[in-house]
Amino acid sequence: MKTRKIKTVSLAESVAQRLLERIQQGEFGPGSRLPGERALQQQLGVGRLALREGLARLSALGVIRVEHGKGARVEDRINSQAVSTALAPLFPERDAKTMQDLVNARSLIEGELAARAAQRRTKGDVKRLESMLNDPGEALEDDHAYARLDYDFHREVARLADNEFLNVMHQALSDHIRSFLLFYAKAHADRKGAIERHRDIVKAIARGDASRARESMRSHITACKSSVEAYIAKKRKRQHEQPSQPGA
């Protein structure tokens, strides 16, 4: 795996963040061992001291366990709040790069959650998902109600997947996901279209089609991102076209 070099002031914190990203993306699953010190030093471009301090940070957060003479391994059970705390520095601003990183993370995590949900669903599970979409009510008109319905749907899919590690990662991103969904709602996006995409996801889950569920979820998340980007571009264009005020 090609990993970009770290060039920040706090090397130890950067080490923790980069390793957490790789854990989040599923490269290192629960209970798996991390590469040895020498390999990690080369991958991250840091010295032994910075690496050990970064590992100690993740250990203190309950993400990994450092075993003397055996290296480090990912904990079998990870606390979502601990992961959220460690992820916070990765989302300092709501800029284009941050949104892209969040969308990529959601696509990876939620795509697999949808696939798992398709493999494990029951008739009752499918009915619950369908009931959430059958009568959106005020959600089509109210920004906050829509964002809440949108988030609740994605959390229910995550719950059905019954994968603790992926679920924890999704929960760790919950604040950022909520913010994105509210912004999406306020961007005058095609809410009916989004709900239809949700229905496509539910249909794939109901059929037990894991591959289709994964693809439908990822396509939906990408479509939401595209809508937000189009809204931002349109807004900037209007601002640019506004005539300058006299004396400005």
What does the model show?
By secondary structure, the chain is mainly alpha-helical. It has two domains: 11-83, Orthogonal Bundle (Arc Repressor Mutant, subunit A); 94-232, Up-down Bundle (Four Helix Bundle (Hemerythrin (Met), subunit A)), CATH 1.20.120. Helices cover 69% and strands 3% of the residues. The protein is built from eleven helices and two strands; from the N terminus they run αααββαααααααα. It has a two-stranded antiparallel ribbon. A hairpin with a 3-residue loop joins β1 and β2. The protein is globular, with a radius of gyration of 21 Å.
Give a quick rundown of the structure.
This protein is mainly α.
Question: What is the CATH superfamily of the largest domain?
Answer: GntR ligand-binding domain-like
- % residues in beta strands: under 5%
Structural domain count: 2
Please state the structural category.
mainly alpha
By CATH reckoning, the class of the largest domain would read Mainly Alpha
